[in-house]
């Protein structure tokens, strides 16, 4: 699986062998900065200038995200997924760590 994103507020899943778009994901209000697969590649996460992380189900054909994390107060620039934890960094000077299994959030203010 190959994903790409850019300034058009959408991201794409590609078939690498045919160079064709398999699926287009739309839902962000601003540019997408980063993409990451979940642990089993069943979900993909997208981080955006619209201050959100959106989680998309790769198995379903639903058009919208299955969950939106909107705790940031400014653009989300990067993220990392490891097991049940999602770590995000944003221009509001915070590093956020979400524990998906427990529903927890820890915020470290770096500025």
Could you characterize the architecture of this molecule?
The structure is a single chain. The chain is an all-beta fold and 111 residues long. Helices cover 0% and strands 56% of the residues. It contains no helices and eleven strands. The protein has a four-stranded antiparallel beta sheet with strand order 4-5-6-7, with no helix packed on it. Strands 8-9-10-11 form a four-stranded antiparallel beta sheet, with no helix packed on it. Strand 9 (85-90) and strand 10 form a beta hairpin. The protein is globular, with a radius of gyration of 14 Å.
Specify the structural class: mainly beta
Distance separating the two termini: 37 Å
How big is the Rg? 14 Å
Catalogue the unreliable spans.
none
Largest sheet: 4 strands, antiparallel
Instruction: Estimate the mean pLDDT confidence.
Output: 94
Main sheet: which strands, in order across?
Answer: 4-5-6-7
What percentage of the residues does DSSP assign to strands (E)?
A: over 45%
> What percent of residues adopt helix (DSSP H or I)?
under 10%
So how many helices?
Answer: 0
Number of strands: 11
The succession of helices and strands, N to C, reads EEEEEEEEEEE
> What does the overall shape look like?
globular
